[in-house]
Design a protein that fits this description.
Layout: H1 9-12, H2 20-23, E1 29-30, H3 58-68, E2 75-78, H4 80-92, E3 99-102, H5 109-117, E4 120-123, H6 134-140, E5 144-150, H7 162-172, E6 177-181, E7 203-208, E8 221-224, H8 227-236, H9 244-253, H10 256-280, E9 286-289, E10 296-301, H11 304-313, E11 316-317, E12 319-320, E13 330-334, H12 338-349, H13 354-358
Parallel strand pairs: 1-11, 3-4, 3-5, 5-6, 6-7
Antiparallel strand pairs: 2-8, 7-8, 9-10, 10-13, 12-13
């Protein structure tokens, strides 16, 4: 028996999530990971690195609770929202017994985390408008403990209909958690479900500092939920999930000054997104540009493969979505600086027109 055979069978069979950094590329225009395009500056103030940090740093929890409009007891901070996904599955799903439900095309870590833990995955694809198939979810609900819904959805960029979310929450009451992934909510804050937590004790919300706060490298995420759910998650979280420097910078980002800076960053992204979207709709090789409530835009081309490779070779790294259900021919473009957006537009303008691609 070789060493690999000692691993769990589900891990041996697992296809890992292909993050932007794993996929690589050599470029100077990185528009494949939905990051803020420019670094923000912080100075470390905490120097007691000889001591272990708090499991849940008080300043971070209190400031995020105030920002999100919830009680501190309803907040858990973790190593990115990705750890929040894993903690929820670990705390609520019995391996080999329970299942999660998710609705592709959507974020890939829901299934990867579940498969890693040995929890079954049930897919209920969204409809042609990327909205929830509520009847399909209801049919799959028996034996499912968690339903993941990403809104705004990655990679499609649209919000899930709030009436459908209410129907889903009523449908799952007493049966399963509904996890609303709000990683991109700062780009459409009016759509947050945080105000629903009191009404729905089985609602859980995932947040992050990676996107609008421009701190993807910090790896700091949040779970908002009832105090009961938070206490269960605290039973399975690592003893010291956040390092002292991470907690230090997160606390600074959540001050009034830090939040004001974030909102200025969001305003810049929204202006650039409007310019990018308008120009993409006039670009000959683009078949469709989808409306977005996020910091990225999904586009469909008649033939995306050569366009993706051409831009890749020019150092413009986009995210290929061809393997996602229903996204054949689609590329996801992060909204970068004004100059980066122009680089993308100039490069795409040199691709064969839609008519040429369809009628070679």
């Amino acid at each position: 028996m070789n060493t690999e055979q000692l691993a769990r069978a589900n891990v041996r069979a697992l296809t890992p999530y292909q993050s932007a950094r794993r996929l690589g590329g050599k470029g100077d225009v990185w528009l494949n990971a939905n990051e803020y395009p420019q670094a923000v500056e912080f100075q470390l103030t905490q120097q007691t690195l000889n001591r272990y940090p708090e499991c849940q740093p008080g300043a971070v929890i209190e400031r995020y609770a105030a920002y999100a409009g919830v009680a501190p007891e309803q907040v858990l901070v973790s190593r990115g929202a990705d750890e929040g996904i894993e903690l929820i599955i670990r705390a609520f799903c019995e391996p080999g017994e329970d299942a999660i439900i998710y609705c592709p095309p959507t974020y890939g870590m829901y299934s990867v985390s579940a498969q890693t833990i040995g929890v079954a995955c049930r897919t209920v694809p969204t409809d042609e408008n990327w909205q929830l198939d509520l009847a399909g979810i209801q049919a799959q609900l028996d034996g499912a403990k968690v339903v993941f819904v990403c809104s705004p959805n990655n990679p499609t960029g649209q919000l899930i209909n709030p009436d459908d979310m209410r129907t889903l929450l009523e449908m799952t009451r007493g049966k399963a958690l509904v996890v609303a992934d709000e990683a991109y909510i700062e780009f459409c804050p009016q759509a947050s479900l945080a105000g629903w937590l009191a009404e729905y004790p089985h609602l859980v919300i995932l947040r992050t500092l990676s996107k609008a706060f421009a701190l993807a490298g910090l790896r700091c995420g949040f779970t908002l939920a009832s105090e009961t759910v938070i206490n269960l998650l605290l039973k399975v979280i690592a003893p010291y999930p956040l390092s002292t420097p991470v907690a230090d910078i997160a606390a600074q980002a959540l001050t009034p000054r830090g939040i004001a800076a974030m909102r200025e960053q969001v305003a810049t992204v929204l202006r650039n997104r409007q310019l990018l979207t308008e120009q993409l709709r006039q670009t000959a090789c683009i078949a469709q540009v989808y409306d977005s409530q996020t910091n990225y835009v999904l586009v469909r081309l008649a033939d995306s493969d050569p366009a993706f490779k051409s831009l890749w070779d020019q150092g413009i790294i986009l995210r290929d979505q061809n393997k996602q259900p229903g996204l054949r021919g689609c590329l996801r473009i992060t909204v970068g600086t004004r100059e980066e957006c122009q680089r993308v537009l100039d490069a795409l303008s040199k691709q064969p027109s839609l008519t040429t691609a369809e009628n070679p």
